[in-house]
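User: If you would, consider this record:
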Amino acid sequence: MASWSTRSLGVKAVLALAVWMLVTTSGPAQGGEQMFKGQITRCMCAASSRAPASDKRAATSNKASPVAACSISCGKKGIKYLLLDPANNAAYLLDKQRESKSFAGKFVVVMGTLHAASGTVRVDDMHRALPPKVFAAKSVAVVCDACPRMMAKAGPAALEALMDWNHYTLIADPQKADLVFVVSANPYLGDFSTRDGPDKRPVAVDITYVNVVDPRTGEDLWGDSRQWGYMLVGKATRELIGEFETQLKREGR
């Protein structure tokens, strides 16, 4: 751990399963390819012999939450993945269920075509989006975790890139920051809020990782890497923060 960092890392991955919402005309209209933004959530569907044929559905977010009606017809019994769009008070069934499962609980951007009658989006492309807390954040800190040898250049490079961007207020204490930029030669394990002590895994300075983390929950809000070797650690770090900056500006429009 670099000396200028005040704390080691840790995380608890939190899978948010949202309350289902009704599909309304305030959402994107039917037509050609559109962009949809929201969170991938799960709908537990179960056909009921007592329910009318047009309303054989049920949903639950988790065992502790009350059962709520599915926003759209799930069809066959089992788990179905939906795109929840609170901004438009809408939820959409996604045709690519296997791909959707890999994004469960995550915020995503979906490019696709809406079939309004069924509330289903035919997915052309899906990628991870930035969650709302990233846009609300005002302050950030930088932590260089697992940064021996040439990897030590990553911390100062991250600070330099963030100062040049001048979007967030930089503070020294990660626990007082809204977000933490975690720079490391090892993949982030999601243990910012649980691990006590430095990363003890073997380190080969070959890949540079940057993750944006919620310091209170340890949730990984964004992350990417560059396999550019130990000679280009600083450049890789700045490139990754520039990638995050570009995505934040694009999605914040």
